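Consider the following assembly input.
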Amino acid sequence: MVRLLTALALGTAALLAPALAGAQDTPPSPEAQFTEECSACHLAFPAFFLPKESWSAIMNDLPNHFGEDASLDNDAMTAIEGYLVKHAARSNRRAFRKYDLETAPPLRITELGWFVHEHSNEVSRAAKKRAGTMTNCAACHRGAERGYFDDD
Amino acid sequence: MKHRYLACFLAPSVLLAIATTPALAQDTSPAAQIEAFSLEAGRAADAEAGKAFFLASHSGGKPDTPSCTTCHTMDPTKGGQARTGKPIEPMASSVNPARFTDSAKITKWFRRNCNSVLGRECTAGEKADVLAWLNSL
């Protein structure tokens, strides 16, 4: 019995140790911060939709974020930009060829050629109305929050 | 006997678990925030003034967000909707007890939304008034 209880106590301690350490001052991972902050207002759009130049431009102008102030403190901003840049699309992809990525990278996924093409004919008026805006991916793509969009 | 042993080991574990999980947020309360903003403003909070401020159309901010009600609607006991279509939980603390319990969130959203609606930070008095109204509904 004593042995069982000792094991139980040790097990509980082992389980709690990381939680205690985490509760002190280790910030959440960049990915966790990205999900938490970006999904506060919209789907946390997967980084692979835009090149790193786009993400840097977006993250460095958060006080003017598509008509609203979405500013973050510097630590969160740096962590999230780092995450997005790391997982961004390759800058030399065909989709970005028409842009001067250094001076005027694309800022809206919905403006990219393939996006317009994919949504131009097959999205019904009713579906558009239900979604409200083309940025509301999850209205039609059930796997959107997991980064899965091939369900159409 | 067996149960007493178990309680000795389990009670501290449970207490520890409770103590560690909510430590990340929930560091304040609506009343504490109202008091802090009032103190900073040097006057008592005025819920009626907060109501007028929340419901008014302002100028000086971004064109798509002239009022708090643009996204939060005229009734804070009901949910609102962001311009993206994403639902916003009710602002009134009576129907949404999680409101105004995380000081970092309060700072962040007042900074963002005051700048979007008014084109400037809100004063401590304005924040006290709005919170007093949202906490009185």
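Chain A has a mean pLDDT of 87. Ask yourself how this observation constrains the way the partners meet.
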